[in-house]
UniProtKB/TrEMBL annotation:
<protein>
    <submittedName>
        <fullName>Rhodanese-like domain-containing protein</fullName>
    </submittedName>
</protein>
<dbReference type="InterPro" id="IPR001763">
    <property type="entry name" value="Rhodanese-like_dom"/>
</dbReference>
<feature type="domain" description="Rhodanese">
    <location>
        <begin position="17"/>
        <end position="102"/>
    </location>
</feature>
<dbReference type="Pfam" id="PF00581">
    <property type="entry name" value="Rhodanese"/>
</dbReference>
<dbReference type="InterPro" id="IPR036873">
    <property type="entry name" value="Rhodanese-like_dom_sf"/>
</dbReference>
<dbReference type="InterPro" id="IPR050229">
    <property type="entry name" value="GlpE_sulfurtransferase"/>
</dbReference>
Amino acid sequence: MNYKDISGEELKKLQQEQPDAVVVDVRTPMEVSQGKIPGAQVIDLMDAQFPQKVDALDKEKPYVLYCRSGNRSAQACNYMAGQGFTKLYNLNGGIGNWPYETE
């Protein structure tokens, strides 16, 4: 596996220890409108522009990806790993496992 599954608590800790970590929501705009993790970038996995948007990201930074259940974000992690990203995390269980406030 090219990424690490982490819990909501582990994500919160990672954000404190690595302030340059980028949280990425790969859900659709409709899903995002129901709330997202504060500060998360939105890059919809189903968007035809997904590969171009990923190419524009800094490969040196750590990325934490999430979706509704953890399935699409795992797919996105695998795609990004194939593009040369090495610090990838997947929020296990998706946004449902984020025990904190959303925006």
